[in-house]
Write the C-alpha cells for this entry.
Amino acid sequence: MDYRRLGSSGLMVSKLAMGTMTFGGKSNFAKVGAVDLETARRHVDICLDAGINLIDTANIYSDGASEEIIGDIFADGKRQDILLATKARFRTGPQINDAGLSRHHLIRACEDSLRRLRTDVIDLYQVHQWDGLTPLEEVVEALDTLIRQGKVRYVGCSNFSAWHIMKALGIAEREMRQRFVSLQLHYSLEAREAEFELMPLSIDQGLGMLIWSPLAGGLLSGKHTRDSGPSPRQLAGWGEPPIYDADHLWDIVDVIRKIAQNRDVSGATVALAWLLARPGVTSVIIGARTETQFADNIAAADLVLDEQEMAMLERVSRKPLPYPYWHQAKTASDRLGPADLAMLSPYLPWPEGQ
C-alpha cells in the first residue's frame, strides 16, 4: 500500500481509505448495508492487513451506529496508528439546533462522536456539507477551537462548492486559524464535474482530495450492463449519484468491462485504479458489504493502467465543457506551447490539444 500526504499537512494516509456507511443498517442507511459488529470487525482486519490506515465515517451513518461499531472494534487499544475521520452537519435530533454548522451544533456533535468512537481525539473532522445559514467565520472559529482543545487534529470539508472553500480558506488565513487540509468530494468515471473547479482548486490550495462513491453506487463495478442493469427509469431515481444519461453510463461500463476482461480483474478494480491515477487524488474511499468485495476493491492499489487504457477511459467518460471552459479551451494555445500543454494537460479541464 502506498501512502500520500494529506494536502499540505504532514499527515500521511493510505491511497485507499475504508468507508463505513454500510455499518449498522439503521434508518435510511439500511438500503446501503447492514453490517453488524462481528462482520465489521472482519472487514476492518482485511483493510488493516492491506495497509489501509484511514477509516472514514460520519455521525449520521445509521444514526451514529457506524461510529459506535468503530468504537467497539478499537475499544481494546487496537487502534494504534489508525486514523479516524468523521463528519458533522446533518440533523441528529428533533431540536432546532440539532443540525447545521453553528458553533453550538459542531462542538456538541464532535463531543458526541468522541463518545461513540471511544476515543480522546478525532484525526480528521470534516464539515459534511455547506450550511447557508451559519457565517463561515463562525464555522472556521468553531473548528479552530476543537483543534486547540485537543479534540481534533485536522479539519476538512465535504460537498462544498469552490467559492465556499476559497472563502473559508481566506477567513482562516485572515484570522490566523486552522485551515482545511482536505476536501472529500464525489468523483468517478461517471461523474467528472469536480474537474472543472474543485480539483484545480484543491491542487492550487494544497487540499488533499478524498473521493467518495468512486463506483457510482456500484454502477461502475462491471456487474451491471446495458442489457441487465437498471432501466433508464430506475436510473432516473438512483439518488446518489443521479444518472442523467443512461447511454453515457453504459458506454463507460462497456470500456471498463473490456479493460477488466483483458486484465483478468473486475470492473471495480479498473474504475478505482483510474481514480488513483488522477492528479491530486490523495485517497479513494472504498466501502463494501462483503469480504470478497473489499478484497476486490483493495486490488486496485496494485493495478496500474497503461496509457492506452487511460486514453480509452478518458475518451468515453469526458463530459462536454461548460462555460467558461469551452471558451478558455479555444484560446489556451495562444499562451501555451505544445510542451506546456503536454505538461499541464492533466490539470486542465479539457483534453490535450482541444
User: Anything to note?
Assistant: The longest helix spans residues 246-263.
